[in-house]
Amino acid sequence: MILSSKRGLSGENKIEELELPLIELEAVVKATENFSICNKLGQGGFGIVYKGRLLDGQEIAVKRLSKTSVQGTDEFMNEVTLIARLQHINLVQVLGCCIDADEKLLIYEYLENLSLDSYLFGKTRSSKLNWKERFDITNGVARGLLYLHQDSRFRIIHRDLKASNILLDKNMIPKISDFGMARIFARDETEANTKKVVGTYGYMSPEYAIYGIFSEKSDVFSFGVIVLEIVTGKMNRGFYNLDNENNLLSYAWSHWKEGRELEIVDPVIVDSLSSTFQPQEVLKCIQIGLLCVQERAEHRPTMSSVVRMLGSEAIEIPQPKPPGYCLVRSHYENKPSSSRQCDDDESWT
């Protein structure tokens, strides 16, 4: 048998009982052809992700924790104990884990269309995403995030939501992935503070990047950035345009104020021969995206409100206030209340 029953773990990160099946190391080694570089899917601060195939033919994705990553060990155990308790169509499904000597592996369903960022920002793939697909992805991510915040067994703040953590299955259904940074909130808890700020520049809310304060509304901010990236096909990090706006949020906001919103839309959507372009839906998404990235957390909508706004044409959508621009290192360098764990071009996931 490849899968074994639940068992206890001992050692530095002791867990009384896992709710995940344990998969034998030998099976994972065979599935990935001894972690062949040819099967490498991606890499992050935790280590490398490999594609594999089990003996029964099932394709899998294997997250292999780097043996030198102390921070990654904590994130791995956090993800192991958390993700097994989550089940939703818009969350990636974990199949099991492997903890054997110095090897720590998480085994996921393999999603053949990889991540959203490769479609939005990769030169060869963007033309494959028409507006209907982008709108469906937006809705799916919103529903997955609502589940984490409100409908799961726990209230969960993801803390590292970004386009590269949105995976797409064969039917282009989006799946939120990577729960190494996630934190569980009590039902009556509204926000928390950390001196160890983790995440990805360009997606962090101002209050989190500067002061280490995180809540559901910091996830909402990240979602808003993703929505604007989906609409424009532009990445917030490293954004540049001839009008001297220094990020995607200011670019979208200036066009919104001037009534030129449709000028920011990815030309791929408009020019598609089999166009599913719906201007009113696009305008609604831009408005919702700007609502989500407002500077003050209390002004941002909840994900339940976002899902309702996306799903109804009858709901009146509020006018957004200016977005938060605090995405540059200088804003929170030398702040005693925060300790940066990533730089401008790195995601620690």
From TrEMBL:
<keyword id="KW-0472">Membrane</keyword>
<keyword id="KW-0812">Transmembrane</keyword>
<protein>
    <recommendedName>
        <fullName>non-specific serine/threonine protein kinase</fullName>
        <ecNumber>2.7.11.1</ecNumber>
    </recommendedName>
</protein>
<keyword id="KW-0418">Kinase</keyword>
<keyword id="KW-1015">Disulfide bond</keyword>
<dbReference type="Pfam" id="PF12398">
    <property type="entry name" value="DUF3660"/>
</dbReference>
<dbReference type="GO" id="GO:0005886">
    <property type="term" value="C:plasma membrane"/>
</dbReference>
<dbReference type="Pfam" id="PF07714">
    <property type="entry name" value="PK_Tyr_Ser-Thr"/>
</dbReference>
<keyword id="KW-0808">Transferase</keyword>
<dbReference type="InterPro" id="IPR000719">
    <property type="entry name" value="Prot_kinase_dom"/>
</dbReference>
<keyword id="KW-0723">Serine/threonine-protein kinase</keyword>
<keyword id="KW-1003">Cell membrane</keyword>
<dbReference type="InterPro" id="IPR001245">
    <property type="entry name" value="Ser-Thr/Tyr_kinase_cat_dom"/>
</dbReference>
<dbReference type="InterPro" id="IPR022126">
    <property type="entry name" value="S-locus_recpt_kinase"/>
</dbReference>
<keyword id="KW-0067">ATP-binding</keyword>
<dbReference type="GO" id="GO:0004674">
    <property type="term" value="F:protein serine/threonine kinase activity"/>
</dbReference>
<keyword id="KW-0245">EGF-like domain</keyword>
<keyword id="KW-0732">Signal</keyword>
<dbReference type="GO" id="GO:0005524">
    <property type="term" value="F:ATP binding"/>
</dbReference>
<keyword id="KW-0325">Glycoprotein</keyword>
<feature type="binding site">
    <location>
        <position position="63"/>
    </location>
    <ligand>
        <name>ATP</name>
    </ligand>
</feature>
<keyword id="KW-0547">Nucleotide-binding</keyword>
<feature type="domain" description="Protein kinase">
    <location>
        <begin position="35"/>
        <end position="315"/>
    </location>
</feature>
<keyword id="KW-1133">Transmembrane helix</keyword>
<dbReference type="InterPro" id="IPR011009">
    <property type="entry name" value="Kinase-like_dom_sf"/>
</dbReference>
<dbReference type="InterPro" id="IPR017441">
    <property type="entry name" value="Protein_kinase_ATP_BS"/>
</dbReference>
<comment type="similarity">
    <text>Belongs to the protein kinase superfamily.</text>
</comment>
<keyword id="KW-0675">Receptor</keyword>
<dbReference type="InterPro" id="IPR008271">
    <property type="entry name" value="Ser/Thr_kinase_AS"/>
</dbReference>
